[in-house]
Write a structure and sequence with these properties.
Two copies of one chain form a homodimer. Chain A is of the alpha+beta class. Chain A has four helices and seven strands, in the order βααββββββαα. Chain A has a single domain, classed as Alpha-D-Glucose-1,6-Bisphosphate, Chain A, domain 4 (2-Layer Sandwich). Chain A is globular. At the A-B interface, loops of A face loops of B.
Protein backbone atom coordinates (compact mmCIF):
# COMPACT_ATOMS: atom_id res chain seq x y z
CA UNK A 1 0.00 0.00 0.00
CA UNK A 2 1.34 3.29 -0.82
CA UNK A 3 2.00 6.91 -0.73
CA UNK A 4 -1.50 8.10 -1.58
CA UNK A 5 -2.92 6.38 1.46
CA UNK A 6 -0.26 7.37 3.98
CA UNK A 7 1.10 10.58 5.38
CA UNK A 8 4.54 10.32 6.84
CA UNK A 9 7.09 12.75 8.11
CA UNK A 10 10.54 12.25 9.49
CA UNK A 11 12.50 14.64 11.64
CA UNK A 12 15.86 14.47 13.34
CA UNK A 13 15.67 15.93 16.82
CA UNK A 14 18.41 16.41 19.39
CA UNK A 15 16.76 14.74 22.34
CA UNK A 16 16.98 11.07 23.31
CA UNK A 17 14.30 8.67 22.14
CA UNK A 18 13.69 7.43 25.67
CA UNK A 19 12.36 10.86 26.65
CA UNK A 20 10.25 11.15 23.50
CA UNK A 21 8.77 7.78 24.35
CA UNK A 22 7.79 9.03 27.79
CA UNK A 23 6.24 12.18 26.30
CA UNK A 24 4.02 10.03 24.06
CA UNK A 25 3.01 7.45 26.63
CA UNK A 26 2.64 9.23 30.01
CA UNK A 27 -0.48 11.41 30.13
CA UNK A 28 1.03 14.10 32.35
CA UNK A 29 3.96 14.44 29.94
CA UNK A 30 1.74 14.38 26.85
CA UNK A 31 -0.66 17.15 27.84
CA UNK A 32 1.78 20.09 27.67
CA UNK A 33 2.90 19.57 24.07
CA UNK A 34 0.26 17.49 22.27
CA UNK A 35 -1.75 20.38 20.76
CA UNK A 36 -0.18 23.15 18.75
CA UNK A 37 -0.76 26.39 20.64
CA UNK A 38 -3.09 28.23 21.12
CA UNK A 39 -5.07 24.99 21.35
CA UNK A 40 -4.30 22.80 24.31
CA UNK A 41 -4.81 19.22 25.43
CA UNK A 42 -6.77 19.21 28.67
CA UNK A 43 -7.30 15.49 29.22
CA UNK A 44 -5.61 12.31 28.15
CA UNK A 45 -6.04 8.64 28.95
CA UNK A 46 -3.46 6.01 28.07
CA UNK A 47 -3.54 2.33 29.00
CA UNK A 48 -0.20 1.31 27.57
CA UNK A 49 -0.81 -2.17 26.17
CA UNK A 50 -2.23 -3.62 22.96
CA UNK A 51 -5.99 -3.28 23.28
CA UNK A 52 -5.71 -0.37 25.73
CA UNK A 53 -7.19 3.11 25.43
CA UNK A 54 -5.50 6.14 23.85
CA UNK A 55 -7.68 9.21 24.03
CA UNK A 56 -7.36 12.94 24.42
CA UNK A 57 -9.51 16.01 24.71
CA UNK A 58 -8.50 19.35 23.23
CA UNK A 59 -9.63 22.84 24.03
CA UNK A 60 -9.84 25.69 21.54
CA UNK A 61 -8.47 29.15 22.30
CA UNK A 62 -12.10 30.17 22.97
CA UNK A 63 -12.39 27.47 25.62
CA UNK A 64 -14.47 25.01 23.61
CA UNK A 65 -13.56 21.41 24.38
CA UNK A 66 -13.33 18.92 21.57
CA UNK A 67 -12.83 15.22 22.26
CA UNK A 68 -10.47 14.04 19.57
CA UNK A 69 -11.76 10.57 19.83
CA UNK A 70 -10.98 7.40 21.67
CA UNK A 71 -8.54 5.07 20.01
CA UNK A 72 -7.13 1.63 20.64
CA UNK A 73 -3.44 1.00 21.18
CA UNK A 74 -2.02 -1.69 18.90
CA UNK A 75 1.78 -1.77 19.26
CA UNK A 76 3.88 -0.95 22.30
CA UNK A 77 7.62 -1.51 21.80
CA UNK A 78 9.18 0.69 24.47
CA UNK A 79 11.41 3.47 23.11
CA UNK A 80 10.88 2.23 19.56
CA UNK A 81 7.36 2.00 18.27
CA UNK A 82 3.91 3.13 19.35
CA UNK A 83 0.82 2.47 17.22
CA UNK A 84 -2.84 3.18 17.80
CA UNK A 85 -5.93 3.41 15.64
CA UNK A 86 -9.16 5.35 15.55
CA UNK A 87 -10.83 2.43 13.77
CA UNK A 88 -11.09 0.50 17.05
CA UNK A 89 -12.12 1.33 20.59
CA UNK A 90 -10.34 -0.14 23.61
CA UNK A 91 -10.72 -3.91 23.70
CA UNK A 92 -10.49 -3.90 19.89
CA UNK A 93 -14.20 -3.10 19.36
CA UNK A 94 -14.83 -1.51 15.94
CA UNK A 95 -15.51 2.19 16.46
CA UNK A 96 -17.58 3.21 13.48
CA UNK A 97 -21.29 2.95 14.15
CA UNK A 98 -23.80 2.77 11.33
CA UNK A 99 -25.12 6.11 12.55
CA UNK A 100 -21.77 7.81 11.98
CA UNK A 101 -21.02 5.95 8.79
CA UNK A 102 -21.19 8.24 5.80
CA UNK A 103 -20.66 11.38 7.91
CA UNK A 104 -17.48 13.44 8.07
CA UNK A 105 -16.26 11.43 11.05
CA UNK A 106 -15.88 8.41 8.83
CA UNK A 107 -13.25 10.19 6.77
CA UNK A 108 -10.81 10.39 9.62
CA UNK A 109 -10.27 6.78 10.43
CA UNK A 110 -6.54 6.39 10.71
CA UNK A 111 -3.81 4.31 12.24
CA UNK A 112 -0.82 6.26 13.56
CA UNK A 113 2.65 4.96 14.26
CA UNK A 114 5.44 6.83 16.01
CA UNK A 115 8.80 5.19 15.28
CA UNK A 116 11.93 6.21 17.16
CA UNK A 117 15.55 5.41 16.32
CA UNK A 118 18.86 6.58 17.74
CA UNK A 119 20.49 9.14 15.48
CA UNK A 120 23.84 10.87 15.96
CA UNK A 121 23.53 14.65 16.23
CA UNK A 122 26.06 17.41 17.07
CA UNK A 123 25.28 17.20 20.74
CA UNK A 124 25.46 13.40 20.97
CA UNK A 125 22.67 10.90 20.51
CA UNK A 126 19.42 12.31 19.20
CA UNK A 127 16.44 10.68 17.56
CA UNK A 128 15.15 9.98 14.12
CA UNK A 129 11.44 10.56 14.63
CA UNK A 130 9.03 9.17 12.07
CA UNK A 131 5.28 9.66 12.27
CA UNK A 132 3.16 7.68 9.83
CA UNK A 133 -0.59 7.84 9.46
CA UNK A 134 -2.39 5.23 7.38
CA UNK A 135 -5.85 5.62 5.87
CA UNK A 136 -8.30 3.33 4.12
CA UNK A 137 -8.49 5.42 0.96
CA UNK A 138 -7.06 8.42 -0.84
CA UNK A 139 -10.06 10.56 0.06
CA UNK A 140 -9.50 10.11 3.79
CA UNK A 141 -5.78 10.65 3.40
CA UNK A 142 -6.24 13.83 1.37
CA UNK A 143 -8.72 15.15 3.92
CA UNK A 144 -6.27 14.53 6.75
CA UNK A 145 -3.46 16.19 4.79
CA UNK A 146 -5.66 19.20 4.02
CA UNK A 147 -6.35 19.63 7.75
CA UNK A 148 -2.66 20.40 8.13
CA UNK A 149 -1.62 17.11 9.64
CA UNK A 150 2.08 17.55 9.00
CA UNK A 151 2.27 21.16 10.14
CA UNK A 152 0.22 20.31 13.22
CA UNK A 153 2.21 17.29 14.26
CA UNK A 154 5.44 19.15 13.45
CA UNK A 155 4.46 22.09 15.67
CA UNK A 156 3.50 19.67 18.44
CA UNK A 157 6.87 17.92 18.11
CA UNK A 158 8.65 21.30 18.41
CA UNK A 159 6.73 21.93 21.63
CA UNK A 160 7.70 18.49 22.94
CA UNK A 161 11.39 18.97 22.15
CA UNK A 162 11.38 22.38 23.83
CA UNK A 163 9.74 20.86 26.90
CA UNK A 164 12.29 18.04 27.09
CA UNK A 165 15.15 20.54 26.84
CA UNK A 166 13.75 22.51 29.76
CA UNK A 167 13.87 19.26 31.73
CA UNK A 168 11.13 16.77 32.50
CA UNK B 1 -19.64 -2.52 26.79
CA UNK B 2 -22.23 -5.09 26.73
CA UNK B 3 -24.47 -7.80 25.58
CA UNK B 4 -26.26 -5.88 22.85
CA UNK B 5 -23.00 -5.22 21.05
CA UNK B 6 -21.46 -8.68 21.36
CA UNK B 7 -22.36 -12.16 20.28
CA UNK B 8 -20.72 -14.88 22.27
CA UNK B 9 -21.07 -18.59 22.48
CA UNK B 10 -19.34 -21.16 24.61
CA UNK B 11 -19.09 -24.86 23.98
CA UNK B 12 -17.33 -27.69 25.76
CA UNK B 13 -15.71 -29.99 23.23
CA UNK B 14 -13.79 -33.22 23.83
CA UNK B 15 -10.66 -32.42 21.86
CA UNK B 16 -7.51 -30.73 23.19
CA UNK B 17 -7.12 -26.97 22.80
CA UNK B 18 -3.71 -27.39 21.15
CA UNK B 19 -5.36 -29.07 18.15
CA UNK B 20 -8.14 -26.48 17.99
CA UNK B 21 -5.46 -23.80 17.96
CA UNK B 22 -3.81 -25.45 14.96
CA UNK B 23 -7.15 -25.73 13.14
CA UNK B 24 -7.67 -21.98 13.54
CA UNK B 25 -4.17 -20.86 12.64
CA UNK B 26 -2.83 -23.20 9.94
CA UNK B 27 -4.51 -22.56 6.56
CA UNK B 28 -4.43 -26.19 5.40
CA UNK B 29 -6.14 -27.23 8.65
CA UNK B 30 -8.66 -24.38 8.53
CA UNK B 31 -9.97 -24.94 5.01
CA UNK B 32 -11.76 -28.29 5.63
CA UNK B 33 -14.00 -27.11 8.50
CA UNK B 34 -14.27 -23.31 8.32
CA UNK B 35 -17.50 -23.12 6.27
CA UNK B 36 -20.65 -24.97 7.21
CA UNK B 37 -21.40 -27.43 4.40
CA UNK B 38 -22.52 -27.26 1.61
CA UNK B 39 -20.43 -24.07 1.45
CA UNK B 40 -16.71 -24.52 1.53
CA UNK B 41 -13.59 -22.49 2.17
CA UNK B 42 -11.37 -22.62 -0.89
CA UNK B 43 -8.59 -20.23 0.10
CA UNK B 44 -7.13 -18.89 3.28
CA UNK B 45 -4.19 -16.70 4.20
CA UNK B 46 -2.85 -16.39 7.73
CA UNK B 47 0.23 -14.47 8.85
CA UNK B 48 0.19 -15.39 12.51
CA UNK B 49 1.34 -12.21 14.26
CA UNK B 50 -0.28 -8.99 15.42
CA UNK B 51 -0.66 -6.89 12.28
CA UNK B 52 -0.70 -9.96 10.01
CA UNK B 53 -3.34 -11.00 7.52
CA UNK B 54 -6.32 -13.25 8.21
CA UNK B 55 -8.42 -13.82 5.14
CA UNK B 56 -10.53 -16.50 3.55
CA UNK B 57 -12.55 -17.11 0.43
CA UNK B 58 -15.72 -19.17 0.44
CA UNK B 59 -17.52 -20.94 -2.34
CA UNK B 60 -21.26 -21.46 -2.54
CA UNK B 61 -22.81 -24.84 -3.40
CA UNK B 62 -23.36 -23.40 -6.91
CA UNK B 63 -19.65 -22.70 -7.24
CA UNK B 64 -19.78 -18.94 -6.73
CA UNK B 65 -16.75 -17.66 -4.85
CA UNK B 66 -17.20 -15.03 -2.17
CA UNK B 67 -14.21 -13.38 -0.51
CA UNK B 68 -15.22 -13.01 3.11
CA UNK B 69 -12.89 -10.15 3.56
CA UNK B 70 -9.38 -9.52 4.62
CA UNK B 71 -8.85 -8.93 8.29
CA UNK B 72 -5.97 -8.00 10.56
CA UNK B 73 -4.75 -10.26 13.34
CA UNK B 74 -4.55 -8.51 16.72
CA UNK B 75 -3.82 -11.10 19.43
CA UNK B 76 -1.85 -14.33 19.16
CA UNK B 77 -1.44 -16.20 22.45
CA UNK B 78 -0.70 -19.75 21.34
CA UNK B 79 -3.29 -22.32 22.44
CA UNK B 80 -5.21 -19.65 24.35
CA UNK B 81 -6.41 -16.63 22.44
CA UNK B 82 -6.71 -15.57 18.81
CA UNK B 83 -8.22 -12.20 17.83
CA UNK B 84 -8.65 -10.51 14.49
CA UNK B 85 -10.76 -7.67 13.14
CA UNK B 86 -12.45 -6.73 9.90
CA UNK B 87 -12.05 -3.05 10.81
CA UNK B 88 -8.37 -3.14 9.85
CA UNK B 89 -6.36 -4.53 6.96
CA UNK B 90 -2.93 -6.13 7.45
CA UNK B 91 -0.45 -3.60 8.80
CA UNK B 92 -3.29 -2.06 10.84
CA UNK B 93 -4.62 0.08 7.97
CA UNK B 94 -8.29 1.03 8.48
CA UNK B 95 -10.38 -1.04 6.08
CA UNK B 96 -13.52 0.98 5.54
CA UNK B 97 -13.25 3.28 2.55
CA UNK B 98 -15.53 6.27 2.14
CA UNK B 99 -16.94 4.53 -0.90
CA UNK B 100 -18.11 1.54 1.13
CA UNK B 101 -19.20 3.63 4.07
CA UNK B 102 -22.96 3.62 4.42
CA UNK B 103 -23.37 0.43 2.40
CA UNK B 104 -24.25 -2.99 3.78
CA UNK B 105 -20.57 -3.86 4.12
CA UNK B 106 -20.23 -1.28 6.85
CA UNK B 107 -22.63 -3.20 9.05
CA UNK B 108 -20.35 -6.16 9.36
CA UNK B 109 -17.33 -4.61 10.95
CA UNK B 110 -16.46 -6.94 13.79
CA UNK B 111 -13.66 -8.12 15.99
CA UNK B 112 -13.63 -11.85 16.73
CA UNK B 113 -11.86 -13.63 19.57
CA UNK B 114 -11.48 -17.37 19.99
CA UNK B 115 -10.59 -18.21 23.58
CA UNK B 116 -9.49 -21.73 24.56
CA UNK B 117 -9.22 -23.21 28.05
CA UNK B 118 -8.57 -26.72 29.31
CA UNK B 119 -11.77 -28.36 30.52
CA UNK B 120 -12.16 -31.82 32.03
CA UNK B 121 -14.46 -34.05 29.99
CA UNK B 122 -15.37 -37.77 30.27
CA UNK B 123 -12.56 -38.77 27.98
CA UNK B 124 -9.86 -36.66 29.69
CA UNK B 125 -8.90 -33.10 28.92
CA UNK B 126 -11.16 -31.27 26.49
CA UNK B 127 -11.63 -27.60 25.78
CA UNK B 128 -13.90 -24.80 26.81
CA UNK B 129 -14.29 -22.97 23.52
CA UNK B 130 -15.56 -19.40 23.58
CA UNK B 131 -16.12 -17.34 20.45
CA UNK B 132 -16.91 -13.66 20.93
CA UNK B 133 -17.70 -11.17 18.22
CA UNK B 134 -17.76 -7.47 19.04
CA UNK B 135 -19.53 -4.80 17.02
CA UNK B 136 -19.63 -1.01 17.07
CA UNK B 137 -23.37 -0.79 17.56
CA UNK B 138 -26.52 -2.78 18.20
CA UNK B 139 -27.57 -2.54 14.57
CA UNK B 140 -24.42 -4.28 13.34
CA UNK B 141 -24.66 -6.87 16.08
CA UNK B 142 -28.31 -7.63 15.34
CA UNK B 143 -27.54 -7.95 11.65
CA UNK B 144 -24.73 -10.39 12.34
CA UNK B 145 -26.97 -12.41 14.69
CA UNK B 146 -29.75 -12.48 12.09
CA UNK B 147 -27.29 -13.92 9.56
CA UNK B 148 -27.14 -16.97 11.79
CA UNK B 149 -23.73 -16.30 13.27
CA UNK B 150 -24.09 -18.70 16.17
CA UNK B 151 -25.58 -21.56 14.14
CA UNK B 152 -22.93 -21.06 11.47
CA UNK B 153 -19.97 -20.96 13.80
CA UNK B 154 -21.45 -23.84 15.80
CA UNK B 155 -21.79 -25.99 12.68
CA UNK B 156 -18.24 -25.10 11.68
CA UNK B 157 -16.97 -26.07 15.12
CA UNK B 158 -18.75 -29.43 14.83
CA UNK B 159 -16.97 -29.98 11.52
CA UNK B 160 -13.64 -29.07 13.12
CA UNK B 161 -14.12 -31.43 16.07
CA UNK B 162 -15.12 -34.30 13.73
CA UNK B 163 -11.99 -33.62 11.66
CA UNK B 164 -9.73 -33.63 14.72
CA UNK B 165 -11.23 -36.92 15.90
CA UNK B 166 -10.48 -38.50 12.54
CA UNK B 167 -6.87 -37.47 13.07
CA UNK B 168 -4.97 -34.48 11.75
Amino acid sequence: MGSNLDITFTRIVDVPKELIWRCWTEPELLLPWFCPKPWKAIACEIDLRPGGIFSSTMQSPEGVTMPTGTGCILEVIPNQRFTWTSALLPGYRPSLTLEKCGTDDAGFMFTATIALEDHVVDTGIGTKYTATVKHADEAGCAKHAAMGFEAGWGAALDQMVAMIKKGI
